[in-house]
Specification:
Blueprint (H helix, E strand, L loop, with lengths): L5 E7 L5 H11 L35 H4 L3 E5 L11 E8 L2 H14 L9 H20 L4 E7 H6 L1 H11 L6 H6 L11
Parallel strand pairs: 1-2, 1-3, 3-4
């Protein structure tokens, strides 16, 4: 049974599959916390599932009261600002780094923003260092349980991954509905 006081967080690097995971959890029956300010577009045709107040967590975490018993999306760099007064279950999305970088680059191209300010090699090094720091920090937090989920493995075997996620969250989700929203046609940056 899902604990009403737990805050479920979907996290990871940008373009790692966090929106897909939010859609899966919503389909499975977990209430989500989103404000729909950032609307669907070509990069995320099914929506972003963001909640703007998350970006202010370093200075304002009052919204976490409303996040209990729900799931919210949070970029990995913000996890370190989670206050200790809550219990969190974090689903941390991972994706092949080359695909993640290609997806980010494509997003910049669509927005007509520069794609050559930092090399892929440099970004890869920075991201890997960041992930190592975040994972080490999570391991030290007694109020955080984490499950690492591969975007690539979800696309290869959505049922097995959905069952894993359901077990982590207390065996209350509709696994079939979770699987039904996995859309392989959105897997556009394959490596």
């Amino acid at each position: 049974m899902m604990d009403r006081e737990i805050v479920t967080i979907v996290s990871g690097l940008p373009r790692s599959g966090t929106s897909m995971m939010m859609k899966m959890l919503e389909a499975g029956g977990l209430p989500i916390l989103t404000d729909n300010i950032r609307t669907a577009d070509e990069d995320n045709p099914k929506g972003y599932y963001e909640f703007e107040k998350v970006k202010q967590i370093e200075h304002d975490s009052a919204w976490l009261e409303d996040a209990q018993g729900k799931t919210v999306k949070m970029v990995s760099a913000l996890l370190k600002h989670l206050p200790r007064g809550y219990h969190y279950k974090v689903i941390f999305m991972r994706r092949k780094m080359e695909e993640l970088l290609a997806s980010q680059r494509q997003m910049l191209v669509r927005r007509e923003e520069p794609t050559d300010t930092v090399s892929d090699e440099r970004l890869m090094m920075l991201y890997r260092g960041h992930l190592k720091q975040v994972e080490a920090w999570i391991d030290q937090q007694p109020n955080i349980e984490v499950m690492y989920v591969s975007y690539n493995e979800i696309l290869e075997g959505p049922a097995a991954q959905a069952e894993r996620i359901d077990r982590f969250l207390g065996n209350t989700l509709d696994v079939e509905k979770m699987v039904s929203v996995v859309d392989r046609t959105l897997y556009r940056q394959r490596q």
